[in-house]
């Protein structure tokens, strides 16, 4: 018997919790709310940096619950807007993540990118990487 009565809901809650736990471990944090805010901030900033078709392809790869967070308040007509520097990127992530500080935003950005690298199809992650300005890509991907 599933916890919520629907296997698809139970599965996406489990996947999302696994992702959040990985982010907490990767960033040395123990607050799931922090991990969720960071995941949202990074994914939304990433989504808004990419062309719509690529943003949609990435969204299709995400667990169902994470996908809802990713698409919340999405306005494709206002994208892409490129955060060209790590400072711009961190400011966007921080603002979208309930105002985390910019150093924490970059730490979370690197952790989310590593999580995407582990969890998603390498082809889509490579395309996402290619859509990020080269100097920022180095900062995020090490």
Secondary structure blueprint with pairings:
Layout: H1 7-27, H2 32-49, H3 52-61, H4 64-71, H5 86-96, H6 102-119, H7 122-131, H8 134-141
Count of individual helical segments: 8
Which oligomeric state applies? single chain
**Are there runs of 5+ residues with pLDDT below 50, and where?**
none
Structural class: mainly alpha
Q: Per the principal axes of the C-alpha atoms, what is the gross shape? A: globular
Percent of residues in helices comes to: over 70%
- CATH class, named Mainly Alpha
Provide the gyration radius in Å: 15 Å
Termini Cα gap: 43 Å
- The residue-averaged pLDDT reads 91
Count of individual domains: 1
By CATH, the superfamily comes out as Uncharacterized conserved protein DUF2267
CATH fold call? Globin-like
Order of helices and strands: HHHHHHHH
Major β-sheet annotation: none
Q: What would you say the CATH architecture is? A: Orthogonal Bundle
β content, as a range? under 5%
**What is the total tally of β strands?**
0
């Amino acid at each position: 018997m599933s916890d919520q009565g629907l296997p698809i809901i139970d599965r996406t809650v489990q996947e999302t919790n696994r992702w959040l736990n990985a982010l907490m471990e990767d960033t040395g944090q123990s607050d799931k709310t922090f991990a969720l805010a960071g995941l949202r901030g990074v994914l939304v900033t990433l989504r808004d940096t990419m062309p719509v078709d690529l943003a949609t392809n990435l969204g299709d790869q995400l667990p169902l619950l994470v996908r809802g967070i990713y698409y919340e308040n999405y306005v494709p007509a206002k994208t892409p807007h490129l955060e060209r520097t790590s400072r711009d990127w961190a400011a966007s992530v921080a603002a979208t993540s309930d105002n985390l500080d910019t150093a924490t935003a970059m730490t979370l950005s690197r952790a989310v990118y590593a999580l995407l690298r582990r969890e998603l199809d390498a082809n889509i992650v490579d395309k996402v990487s290619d859509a990020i300005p080269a100097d920022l890509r180095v900062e995020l991907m090490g």
